[in-house]
Write a structure and sequence with these properties.
Blueprint lengths: L3 E5 L3 H13 L7 E2 L4 E4 L4 E5 L15 E4 L3 H13 L3 E2 L5 E4 L4 E8 L5 E7 L5
Parallel strand pairs: 1-4, 5-9
Antiparallel strand pairs: 2-3, 3-4, 6-8, 7-8, 8-9
Helix pairs in contact: 1-2
């Protein structure tokens, strides 16, 4: 459905370290420098992070969440741990199963170093 997501940051080096670690825990290669932003790409979409082009301070969206698909609950845990070790902040409940009407989901939530809300997401197969 989405081609890409672009996030503003206040420190590209710090953000690249955070996203290389968290997305690396999900099997992605390190971000590529495209001049004014860094990008992590898959066949399904891309994430870009860079300082706002208008020169103003970046800000996170209140009520916004970006979810990253993971292949297993263990990958969600590795994503969460990598985020905490690289400047992220744990938010909401600890990583674990939630059942909110979409079936069982294994979720973990972080804020990146600039306050963007992120979610590691694994859909538990029916019957498990």
């Amino acid at each position: 459905m989405f081609s890409h997501v672009m996030l503003g940051c206040s420190d590209r080096e710090r953000s690249k370290k955070f996203y290389d670690a968290t997305l690396g825990a999900l099997g992605l290669s390190p971000g590529q420098d495209f001049g004014k932003s860094d990008w992590w790409m898959t066949k399904q979409g891309a994430l870009g992070v860079g300082e706002p082009l208008n020169g103003e301070a970046c800000s996170h969206g209140n009520g916004s969440t970006i979810g990253f698909a993971a292949p297993s609950p263990e990958a969600v845990d590795a994503w969460h741990a990598a985020g905490l070790a690289n400047g992220g902040t744990a938010i909401e409940d600890p990583p674990g199963i939630r059942d909110g009407g979409f079936g069982k989901l294994y979720l973990a939530y972080l804020r990146d170093p600039d306050g963007n809300k992120l979610c590691g997401f694994y859909r538990v197969p029916a019957g498990q």
